[in-house]
């Protein structure tokens, strides 16, 4: 195993009674990159993070964090990593500045609360009780608690779940700033747009295994279907099987919408419209979009990320 990686995990397995949550997982994260781990609930993402964070011991496999082994260098690792969990519970009457000071006191070296408040855009909430913060402000405070020890490696477990678009954008900007400071970030997310915007590389995970690794652009290019046509119908859509057979392409039916992959948008779109006309389908509108990581996930797993 090499010290050049921020994270290096080989052959990780973890079972909880009859459920094998992680099955032979290999993962290497480059120092200074933002790496996204994508997958639906039950894919094994959180268990993987907990093993990498030293909270859960793998049944089988090896883990090195910043060149160190959890088995005999755990204390040293903890001073150099930061962890933001899916939810962080604080006493209702803890003030924002107090929380940062308290968590900072747990480490031999800590960032000044004033510095963190500026980073988190919480200067005007420094003396506010945490229970009076909005959802987005609470998530920013939780991230600040993960940063109090000035970590080289930061774990973010679904940091923007439940946030409105404006709050989500605010957290994205903080993640970009952390990357600009040279920190390594591993995040899990349910939002494909988030992964495409923030991540240098992503791993698509399902049923305890990483199915594919690469940059978002590489994974999308690997589809060889740069565009997706979405057909929307008036009322209940007709049977998709005759249309797919006539078109000679796979068609995914999603409620009122059919999604059709296009290898060549100009050529394939013309064939699609001819097919719609030939079968006299009650199409309401047609929309063409570029392929996304969601489409990669669908191809690999046969289901949506949020299923």
Characteristics of this structure?
307 residues; alpha/beta; Rossmann fold; 2 domains; six-stranded mixed sheet; four-stranded antiparallel sheet; 11 helices; 14 strands
Task: Please tell me about this protein's structure.
With 307 residues, the chain is α/β, with parallel strands linked by helices. It has two domains: 5-220, Rossmann fold, CATH 3.40.50; 225-290, Alpha-Beta Plaits (2-Layer Sandwich), CATH 3.30.70.3400. The chain is 35% helix and 29% strand. The protein has eleven helices and 14 strands. It has a six-stranded mixed β-sheet, sandwiched between helices. Strands 2-1-4-5 form a four-stranded antiparallel β-sheet. Strands 12-13-11-14 form a four-stranded antiparallel β-sheet, covered by helices on one side. It is globular, with a radius of gyration of 23 Å. The model has no long low-confidence stretch (mean pLDDT 91).
């Amino acid at each position: 195993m090499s010290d050049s990686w921020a994270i290096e995990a080989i052959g990780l397995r973890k079972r909880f009674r009859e459920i094998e949550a992680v099955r032979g997982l290999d993962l290497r994260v480059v120092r200074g990159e933002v790496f996204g781990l994508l997958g639906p609930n039950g894919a094994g993402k959180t268990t993987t993070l907990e093993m990498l964070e030293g909270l859960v011991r793998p049944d089988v496999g090896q883990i090195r964090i910043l060149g160190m082994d959890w088995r005999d260098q755990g204390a040293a690792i903890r001073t150099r990593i930061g962890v933001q969990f899916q939810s962080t519970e604080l006493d209702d009457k803890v003030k924002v500045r107090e929380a940062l000071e308290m968590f900072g006191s747990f480490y031999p070296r800590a960032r000044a609360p004033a510095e963190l408040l500026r980073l988190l855009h919480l200067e005007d909430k420094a003396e506010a009780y945490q229970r009076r913060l909005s959802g987005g402000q609470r998530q920013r405070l939780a991230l600040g608690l993960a940063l109090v020890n000035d970590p080289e490696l930061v774990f973010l477990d679904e940091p923007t779940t439940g946030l409105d678009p404006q709050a989500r954008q605010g957290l994205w900007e903080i993640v970009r700033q952390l990357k600009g400071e040279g920190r390594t970030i591993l995040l899990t997310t349910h939002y494909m747009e988030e992964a495409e915007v923030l991540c240098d590389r992503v791993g698509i995970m399902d049923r305890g295994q990483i199915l594919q690794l690469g940059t978002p652009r590489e994974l999308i290019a690997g589809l060889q279907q740069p565009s997706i046509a979405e057909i929307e119908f008036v009322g209940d859509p007709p049977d998709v099987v005759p249309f797919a057979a006539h078109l000679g392409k796979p068609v995914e039916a999603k409620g009122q919408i059919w999604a059709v992959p296009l290898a060549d948008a100009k050529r394939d779109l013309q064939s699609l419209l001819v097919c719609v006309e030939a079968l006299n389908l009650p199409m309401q509108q047609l929309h063409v979009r570029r392929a996304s990581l969601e489409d990669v996930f669908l191809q690999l797993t046969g289901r949506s990320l949020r299923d």
